[in-house]
Amino acid sequence: TPVAVVCSGAKSILDLPATLELLETRRIPVIGYGVDELPAFYSVSSGHRLALAHRVDDARGAAEAIRAHRSLPGAGGILLVQPPPAHLALPAPQVEAWIAAALADAEARGIRGGAVTPHLLGWLARSSGGRTLAVNVALIVDNAATAGAIASALT
Question: What is the pLDDT along the chain (155 residues), one digit of tens a residue?
Fold first, then answer.
């Protein structure tokens, strides 16, 4: 059975247009859960206006989309994306500026490979005064609640 994943969009450190294109070429539909645009993990909007081809607005609609997708021969996974909680979300331009500064610092220090991500996440936490961590925790809770509601609607 193809897996259905609920998340808050792709991590902000990724090339979001390329990520969305890769998912589409792998036949993994990306469906907005209450949104028409790909969220950017910490931010409600990616700032890139990455329009999604499909949208659902509740668990019942998501369950119907999952059922329809699973009925297709050779169907793979399906991705449902929802923004982080609006009251904690951070402006995309600010997050992008922090990421650029963190990457420049990593380059200057010779930090490479697998060490870049922990450096970047630490930089974001410090630069945001811990707000990125608060958003991360809240989106985990929201994503789990949404996934639970969808699972219930599927049964």
Answer: 789 999 998 877 778 889 889 998 998 999 999 999 888 889 988 776 778 989 999 999 999 999 999 999 988 899 999 999 989 999 989 999 999 999 999 999 999 999 999 999 999 999 999 999 999 999 999 999 999 999 999 99
What is the full DSSP assignment across 128-144?
TTTHHHHHHHHHHHHHH
Pure H helices in 16-130 = 16-25, 59-70, 92-109, 116-127
What token pair was written down for 72? 């297709």
Nearest to 99 by CA among 82, 115, 75, 123: 123
Rounded Cα distance, 100 and 84, in Å: 21
Can you say whether residue 130 is alpha, beta or left, with left for phi > 0 and alpha for psi between -120 and 50 degrees? left
Contacts 24+ apart (CB under 8 A), 113-118: 117/13
